[in-house]
Amino acid sequence: MKTDLSNDKAGKKSKNAAYTGLLAALAASSCCIPPVIALIAGVGGSASALSWMEPFRPYLIGLAVIAIGYAWYNHFKSKKEDDCGCEIEKPKWYQTKTFLVAITVFAVISISFPYYAHIFYPDNKKEVVIVNQANIETTDFIIEGMTCQACEAHIDHAVNALEGIINVKSSYENENAQVEYDNSKTTLKEITKAINSTGYTALFIRECNE
């Protein structure tokens, strides 16, 4: 008969590894999740609070994969030992395949969050009637703090909430947001304020050459 102590010890190792992997997966996207939470909770200033974790994302993803992989290895190793025909007790919830599947799925959802976060931002772009073409300007805002597509969607959403915005396109890779607007309906100051309200920082502005 397989000892309860041995079975429980293996199960706890698997559980601890699974939780470590889950926490690492959440941490890997912690720089991208706050913008969405900020939108829902209305606390824009906290959006870029964890942007400093972005450089650690590859390592955290690696840790998540290794930890959850170890949990699965432990699970199958324990199952193989159970198949010896020995009498064993019913496994605890954290020793089940269902537990590991749930942890794995949640970890994958967390890690891939930056790639689908934009769906949480409703389309608030307005149709702008251009009365005088001379009033149309395009300005490139250099922005500090963006780390992923979720950051881009957050800034685009905030700027589009203003009147007179014709088009806005943010890029975390280029660290900028290009805004086309009607200067008779909004100003650079208002656009800068909208960007800063998200928690990111518009460092300086430059006019785009047509």
Q: What does this molecule look like?
A:
The protein is α+β, with helices and mostly antiparallel strands and 210 residues long. It folds into two domains: 4-118; 121-207, Alpha-Beta Plaits. The protein is 48% helix and 14% strand. The protein is built from seven helices and four strands. It has helices at 4-28, 33-41, 57-82, 97-111, 113-116, 149-160, 188-196; strands at 136-144, 165-171, 176-182, 201-207. Strands 2-3-1-4 form a four-stranded antiparallel sheet. A hairpin with a 4-residue loop joins strand 2 and strand 3 (176-182). Helix 1 (4-28) runs antiparallel to helix 3. The model has no long low-confidence stretch (mean pLDDT 82).
| Number of DSSP-assigned strands | 4
- How much helical structure, as a percent, in the residues? 40-55%
Which ranges are low-confidence, i.e. pLDDT below 50, for 5 or more consecutive residues? none
Radius of gyration: 24 Å
Largest sheet: 4 strands, antiparallel
- N-to-C span: 80 Å
Order of strands in the sheet with most strands: 2-3-1-4
Structural class call reads alpha+beta
Q: How would you describe the shape?
A: elongated
Strand content: 5-15%
The helix count comes to 7
